[in-house]
Every structure is written in C-alpha cells, then in structure tokens.
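Re: the pair you flagged

First of the two:
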Amino acid sequence: MLFKRLSLAVLVAAASHAALASPATSTIQFEGAVKGTTCTVSVGGVDASTPSTVILSDLDPDDISEGAYWWRQGANFSIDLMGCSGSATLVRASFQGANGTTVTDGRLNNMATDSPASNIQLWLRVAYPHSRDIEVGGDQSTLPYASIWAGMAWLGYEVRYTGESAPSAGNIEAAVEYTVAYQ
C-alpha cells in the first residue's frame, strides 16, 4: 500500500511539473511611427500658406556708377519655424524662381510689367547663420543649416539690388519659391 501511495505521489508530482514545463505561446506587439520633422513656417510673420511680400528700400539710380558692378541693400527677411516636432536638429531653405521670374547667374531678373526699371536684378544672400550668396535655381548644397532649438529655428536672409550698369527708374518685381529641408 505504501508503494501505491508513493507511486501515486510521484505520478501527481510529475504531472504538475509537466504542466509547468509545457510550451506556452503568446504575442508581442511592436508599435512605433516614422515621422518627419514638421514645423509651422512663416515669412515676416505671415503663415507660409499665404504668399509673403518683402518691401525693398527705394534705390536712386543716380547712386549707381555706370559700368561698375554694384549692389545696394534692399531688405532683410526671415523664414521662421516654430512648433517643430520630430528628430531633426538642423534646417535650411533652398530657392527657385517662381511666378514667371527668370534667373540669370543665380540672380532674379526684374519681372515688373508696369513701368519696369531696367538693368537691375535681385540678389539673395544668407544673412544668418553664416553670410553667403545664394545661387537661385543653382547648386545650393553648401548653404548653411541653422539649428532647431526648443522647437524653433530662424533663417535670416537679405535681398539686394544688383547690376552691372546704372539702372533706370521704375518698378521691380520678382518671386522665389522656397523649400525647407531638415537634417
């Protein structure tokens, strides 16, 4: 009888260990997202969904020497980024002619149709973070990046009048399309 009880105890113990050691299956679910960096973009305080206008300072044609390459200050402007989310830490913009604006040697040609000034182009330059000429429509791969800090970045630019001979008085119009790239 003792043998039967001992056998039954060993059998029950073995069965309970077998239940503990039996394979178990379950599921592990992985979740995540691939998100690009996004920011709210504005130019001069105007949301990027609305075209912005930068007003240049007036230029007196008599201030320009005939036959000499020249440039004069026109205006400063910025592309402001706020509420940036994502993993990017750097940002820069690149520029192409827009709205029929043609480009010669990286500079914007005057496209005014109402009393246009002659012998004048507009020259874009990076003002911040590092001053550098922008070749509109050309290779802009060496333009500097600005840091995104605390979800914000500021890209400073200047647009200048330029030419190789004295301009005539008149209106000046040109447009660029910009693309913001993150890194």
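Second of the two:
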Amino acid sequence: MAAPSADVDGVDLRRRLMAAEPMQRVAALHDLECQLERAAQPPGARLAQAVQEFVARGMPFYSSVDPHYLAWVDRAVEYWGRLQPRGESAGAAVAAGPRRATDPVIS
C-alpha cells in the first residue's frame, strides 16, 4: 500500500471514505491508523486506544446514504482531527460536522 500523504486533511479523508472505489476507503482508513505513528506529539493513551480499536473493527458495510456508515465516517474524521497538531485541526473539525449530544467524548 502507498505511504500515507502528509497533506491529507479531514476534508480529503472524508472524501476518500465516501468514495465508491473500495481501495480509496481502505487506504483512507490505513492513513488514519498510520496517523498515530506520525503524530508530532503522541496522543493520550485513551485517544490512541480508541483510534486503534476503531481501526481494528474495520469498515462497516458501505452505503453513502446509510446513517450508520455516515456516523462512522464522522467518527473517523473526528479522530483524524484530534490526532493533528493543534494549529492544523481546525479544518478537520469543520469537516467532521457538528457534534451530537449523544456523541461520547474520549480524551
């Protein structure tokens, strides 16, 4: 698999996770996994564990209109943004969309 791109942002990650081509979705999920290793400052243990578990569960059945899949994409983009250095996460937060009251908070 190709090396993850350093210029990937939350918007690009969302686009790739929503792509009709399966390999784009797989590569995007792999980029999220690799982001743990590339982080300038290692994330907290709870965040790192949450991202590892999220990636280990794999991708749900793809449907661009399924609320479960769309929520999964939102979560992936949220994790991506939280793994970015503080100054770079603003675009990812916008890409993730609004948080819902039912969303769990992981520090």
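The helical segments are 10-17, 22-38, 45-57, 67-83, 90-96.

-B.
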